[in-house]
Amino acid sequence: MVRIALVGAGFIGSVHARNLAEHPEVRFVGVGDIDAARAGDLADRMGTDRLTDAEIYDSDQVDAVLIASSTDTHADHLRRAAVAGLPTFCEKPIDLDLAHAIDTVARVTAAGVAAMVDFNRRFDRDHSELHRSVRTGEIGGVELVQLTSRGPSLPPLDYIATSGGQMRDQTVHFFDLARWITGEDPVDVFAAGSVFTDPRMAQLGDVDTSVVTLRMPSGALVQIDSARRTGYGYDERIEVLGSDGMIESGRRPIGSVSRYGPGRLVGDGLHAGWFERVAPTYRAALDHFLAALTTGADIGPTLGEALKAQAIAEAAARSLRTGNRETITYPVTPSAVTTH
Q1: ∠ at Cα 95 (71, 35), nearest 5°?
Q2: What's the order of all strands across the beta sheet hosting 26-32?
Q3: Which GO molecular function terms does the record list (predicted)?
């Protein structure tokens, strides 16, 4: 049994809490949060304890820490876990400030502890099979990749204001997928965006709809379209065109019932929200983290990989501002620890 403490009792924290409480290989030690009452409520519902900060990082009682707190606290908790010598599973991003994120990764790496960032889309069943197919050469050389991320509704503006913007908050998952699928680090990026929902989005310096083009060292092109609002549910899909064929991880409807009538065909629609679509990936990511800790298998996405996705997001956000194609500069960090 791996003894795990959870930091963060908000929405994502509650998702992780349920997975920890139900996992047969985990002893869910407890949960801590800046809001003690919220932590206590979640702990009671999950049948575990409310923890103080000191108890979270007590390596005599805890084997690993899962960080699902507010974005602006991730780096601090990663550093504290590293000082305690505790492996960490952390929600993205490491920190909204790239320089601070780089410094944090250097400190965690120097401590020699394993750390994984929850880019959970990698653990989607269909995306994972697409990745395997591409990387084993089943469709030949990659030439064109299309990724779609379209959410059903605009998040609250107070969330948008602190999220880092669409490139850093929403599209960053697909920057990571683009690297993971192709095995390449893009060299430059062009981003264009618009506001169609709430005009206050522009006042926040953000967009709700965007198209991003990445150019890979091989010459392959990647296009990512992202939208904060649709009229038909949550839409996520990937298509990869290769020299010998094409593979697609398509839209996933809530069911597979088709209704045939005179001159028409009606099928099941898409999930109402993003979480309903990707919920299983959180458990799959936890399984991977536990396997790495218990068997010594490679862990990932690593902190170094998360920094690369963040560097792409920074360049894309810059492109949105300047209207120019921007070169991507990747941070130089020590070699990331991959196993416990």
Answers
A1: 25
A2: 49-50, 26-32, 2-7, 64-67, 88-90, 115-117
A3: nucleotide binding; oxidoreductase activity
Instruction: State both tokens at 332.
Output: 């130089």
Full pLDDT tens readout for the chain, 340 residues: 999 999 999 999 999 999 999 999 999 999 999 999 999 999 999 999 999 999 999 999 999 999 999 999 999 999 999 999 999 999 999 999 999 999 999 999 999 999 999 999 999 999 999 999 999 999 999 999 999 999 999 999 999 998 899 999 999 999 999 999 999 999 999 999 999 999 999 999 999 999 999 999 999 999 999 999 999 999 999 999 999 999 999 998 998 888 898 999 999 898 888 889 999 999 999 999 999 999 988 999 999 999 999 999 999 999 999 999 999 999 986 554 443 3
In the block, which residue shows the tokens 């490679």? Answer: 298
Q: What is the DSSP letter of 95?
A: -
CA distance 280 to 286: 10
Pairing of strands 221-227, 235-242: unpaired
SS3 (DSSP) at 236: strand
Strand blocks (E) in the chain: 2-7, 26-32, 49-50, 64-67, 88-90, 115-117, 142-150, 188-194, 209-215, 221-227, 235-242, 245-249, 258-261, 264-267, 326-327
Q: Is the pTM of this model over 0.90?
A: yes
Whether 43 and 54 have beta carbons less than 8 Å apart is answered as no
Structure tokens at 46: 């999950």
Q: Which residues contact 163 (CB under 8 A, 6 or more apart)?
A: 71, 155, 169
**Chain centroid to CA 36:** 27
Nearest to 7 by CA among 56, 45, 71, 54: 56
DSSP-assigned states of every residue in 271-339: -SSHHHHHHHHHHHHHHHHHHHHHH-----S-HHHHHHHHHHHHHHHHHHHH-S-EE--PPP-PPPP--
Q: Specify whether the CB–CB gap between 104 and 78 falls below 8 A.
A: yes
Beta-carbon contacts of residue 183 (< 8 Å; ≥ 6 apart): 135
CB of 13 within 8 A of CB of 6?
A: yes
